[in-house]
Amino acid sequence: MFIQTEATPNPATLKFLPGKVVLEDGTADFRDAATAREASPLAGALFEVPGVTGVFFGYDFITVTKQEGPDWQHLKPAILGAIMEHFMSGLPVMMRGGTAASLAEEAEGEEFYDKADEELVLTIKELLDTRVRPAVAQDGGDITFRGYENGTVFL
C-alpha cells in the first residue's frame, strides 16, 4: 500500500491520501481522543500517536493535525503505520451509525431555512460545491451547509 502525503497551508496539518475511499459520504472531524476512539478505529489509532491533536476524514483523504513541537519527520512514520495497519485489518473506518454523515447529523442537526428562500439556498449550495469546497479540500478540510436565516449562511 502506498500512501501519498500533501502539505497544506497550515504547517500543523498534513494530508494523507491512502489511494482508497476513506468515507463513502460526508466527512468526520475528531478533536479529541475519546470521541475518536468511540466513533472510529482509525481515528482512535491516529490519536495514539503522541502529538496528534486532530483527525479529519474526507472521501479519499485523511488530514492529521499535530501540536506545536514535534516535527512531521518524527510523526509521519507512526501515522503512516497506523493508516496502513487499519486498511490491512479490514476494520470499518466508522463504527457509530456506519457513516460519517450520521456522526455529523448527531452533532449538527438538520438543515434549516425558510422555504421562501429555497431558490437562494440552492444557489448558495451550488456555489459552496463548485467554488468553496474545492478550495477548502486543498487545505485538507470540508465545508457543509447547515442553514440560512435572515441573510446569514450557517456552515
Please outline the helices and strands:
Elements: E1 4-7, E2 13-17, E3 28-30, H1 33-39, H2 41-47, E4 52-57, E5 62-66, H3 72-89, H4 100-108, H5 118-138, E6 147-149, E7 152-154
Antiparallel strand pairs: 1-2, 2-5, 3-4, 4-5, 6-7
Helix pairs in contact: 1-2, 2-3
Walk me through what this model shows.
- The chain is an alpha+beta fold.
- The protein has two domains: 4-107, Scaffold protein Nfu/NifU, N-terminal domain (Ribosomal Protein S8, Chain: A, domain 1, 2-Layer Sandwich); 110-154, no CATH class.
- Helix content is 40%, strand content 19%.
- It contains five helices and seven strands; from the N terminus they run βββααββαααββ.
- A five-stranded antiparallel β-sheet has the order 1-2-5-4-3. A two-stranded antiparallel sheet has the order 6-7.
- Helix 1 packs antiparallel against helix 2 (41-47) and helix 2 packs antiparallel against helix 3 (72-89).
By DSSP, the count of extended strands is 7
What is the overall shape? elongated
The total number of structural domains is: 2
- Count of runs of 4 or more consecutive helical residues: 5
Main beta-sheet strand count, sense and barrel state: 5 strands, antiparallel
Helix content: 40-55%
Spatial sequence of strands, sheet with the most strands: 1-2-5-4-3
Helix and strand content put the structural class at alpha+beta
End-to-end gap: 35 Å
Unreliable spans: 98-107
* CATH architecture label name of the largest domain: 2-Layer Sandwich
Strand content: 15-25%
CATH superfamily of the largest domain: Scaffold protein Nfu/NifU, N-terminal domain
Q: Give the CATH class of the largest domain.
A: Alpha Beta
What is the third-level CATH name, the topology of the largest domain?
Answer: Ribosomal Protein S8, Chain: A, domain 1
Average pLDDT, to the nearest integer? 85
Radius of gyration: 17 Å
SSE topology string: EEEHHEEHHHEE
